[in-house]
Design goal:
Layout lengths: L5 H13 L9 E2 L5 E4 L2 E5 L12 H14 L7 H5 L2 H14 L3 E5 L2 H6 L2 H4 L5 E5 L4 H8 L4 E5 L4 H15 L33 E2 L3 E2 L6 E6 L11 H11 L2 E5 L24 E5 L10 E5 L1 H10 L1 H4 L6 H39 L11 E7 L1 H13 L2 E2 L1 E3 L9 E6 L6 H17 L5
Parallel strand pairs: 3-14, 5-6, 5-9, 9-10, 10-11
Antiparallel strand pairs: 1-2, 2-3, 4-12, 7-8, 11-12, 13-16, 15-16
Helix pairs in contact: 2-12, 4-12, 8-9, 12-14
Length: 440
């Protein structure tokens, strides 16, 4: 009976509030865009992932409506029974073509793509090396697999190499395994440890560093762009280390797909011949609705089709979302490169003005994510509310989402922002910043 546990849940909720991690949902009336209405207030939106401004666009509405009319509301099935439509196969082919990979598989979200990846391709005796600031979906996916876990310091190539050395020396790893060696999946009930935990060093290695008759696998996993800081992974250096030690490379490029690179292919642009697995989403720049995918080596993708639980036991992506995502990729070069140029101009304009004001900004300047570093948690919350009162919608991020003493307001620029929007936001930041003594 729930009455036996009601007080426990009430305490859980009180603990969340007292820890300062309570999350309030503000309700948007109408469409997502640069201008929104929140709880009766008309605001400029500077906290969405709508980097190319497509989420509330008429083009996306029409593409989704066309898909709805042609393929219906849903497939009412998992993929391998009767849930695969021509739109799903067409989208998978287009994803592979767009990003320059051998194959691709769709998921209902990138979270599902990540949680369905690691336990499918890694087993006890293998090793995964994960950046300490990776997204929660990578962390949760790693927990589900039995591979030994190493968490390396954020973008610290020396620390990553030390951990690669540790595993390879202990496992007596021979030359890198040949592509296409058999991939086995651990028990569906396998569970890993907490973030940053390194599993026990014992592993089922037989003579010559073998795992169940094959060489142990190593996989380096990283975000392409880290969402709280807006900085980009050192992918070239990671690939160099992977090739040196015989490891595979996996990149979650959710915040970079459609946003970074000369052609908008993301942080992986120009490196896909060296990267084995790419996961990403259609829920940010590439449409904004949802859906995710894994792309990469054809053997890995086929194993995911056969064994990935988040694919096998989930309904297929709704056809209208798949149709809109397909439209975005097919028309990206012809129609949306101009949006890529615009969001970059907006980012440069906003950052330059904020730095001139005297604000301390995070990120490396390559990405529309622009953290305004305030350090103090109360200051971040108070300033976000003050900006809300000035018609600017941003959110404060504090511990445990970011480290203690690193509180910030995360500003996200969009191609949908006009110069008038940017100037209004800058004026509000300047006024509020002076009000709180952050700038002079």
């Amino acid at each position: 009976m729930f009455t036996n546990y009601k007080s426990q849940f009430e305490k859980d909720l009180e603990d969340i509030k007292s820890a300062g991690t309570w999350k309030e949902e503000k309700t948007i009336s109408g469409k997502q865009g640069a201008e929104i209405e929140v709880e009766g207030e008309k605001l400029l939106n500077f906290c969405g992932n709508n980097y190319l401004g497509l989420a509330g666009s008429q083009e996306m509405e029409k593409a989704a409506a066309d898909g709805l009319q042609k393929y219906g509301f849903g497939m009412a099935s998992v993929r391998f029974i009767c849930g695969t439509g021509t739109v799903h196969k067409d989208l998978e082919s287009e994803v592979a073509k767009f990003f320059g990979t051998e194959d691709a598989i769709l998921y209902t979200s990138c979270f599902d793509a990540n949680t369905g990846l690691f336990e499918t391709i890694l087993q006890e005796g293998d090793a995964i090396f994960s950046d300490e600031l990776n997204h929660a979906s990578i962390i949760d996916g790693v927990r589900l697999c039995k591979a030994e876990r190493f968490r390396f310091k954020h973008s610290d190539m020396h620390d990553l190499e030390e951990k690669l050395k540790e595993f390879t020396s202990r496992s007596a790893l021979p030359n890198p395994p040949h592509q296409g060696e058999g991939i086995t999946s651990p028990s569906p009930s396998s569970r890993g440890g907490e973030k940053g935990e390194v599993a026990p060093s014992s592993s089922p290695l037989s003579g010559g560093g073998k795992v169940g008759g094959r060489s142990p696998r190593m996989l380096i996993a990283t975000d392409g762009v880290f969402s709280m800081d807006g900085d980009t992974a050192k992918l070239k250096e990671i690939c160099n280390l992977a090739e040196k030690y015989g490891a595979m490379v996996m990149v979650d490029d959710s915040h970079a797909s459609g946003v970074l690179g000369a052609k908008g292919r993301g942080s992986v642009e120009g490196l896909m011949d060296r990267i084995d697995i790419l996961t990403s989403t259609f829920g940010k720049a590439l449409g904004g609705a949802g859906g995710g995918f894994t792309a990469g080596r054809k053997e890995i993708i086929e194993v995911l089709r056969q064994r990935s639980r988040t694919s096998l036991f989930s309904n297929s992506l709704p056809p209208m979302i798949a149709s809109a995502a397909l439209y975005t990729l097919q028309n990206y070069d012809a129609k949306f490169l101009k949006s890529l140029k615009q969001v970059r101009e907006n980012t440069n304009y906003f950052r330059a003005a904020m730095e001139k004001f005297g604000f301390k900004l995070g990120g490396d300047g390559q990405h529309p994510i622009t953290p305004v570093m305030l350090m103090e948690e109360k200051l971040a919350f108070d300033m976000a509310q003050a900006l809300f009162n000035h018609g600017i919608y941003v959110r404060a991020f504090t511990y445990p989402v970011v480290p203690k003493g690193k509180a910030r307001i995360r500003v996200q620029l969009s191609a949908a922002h006009t110069k008038e929007h940017l100037d209004k936001a800058l004026a509000a930041f300047s006024e509020v910043g002076k009000q709180y003594g952050i700038i002079k």
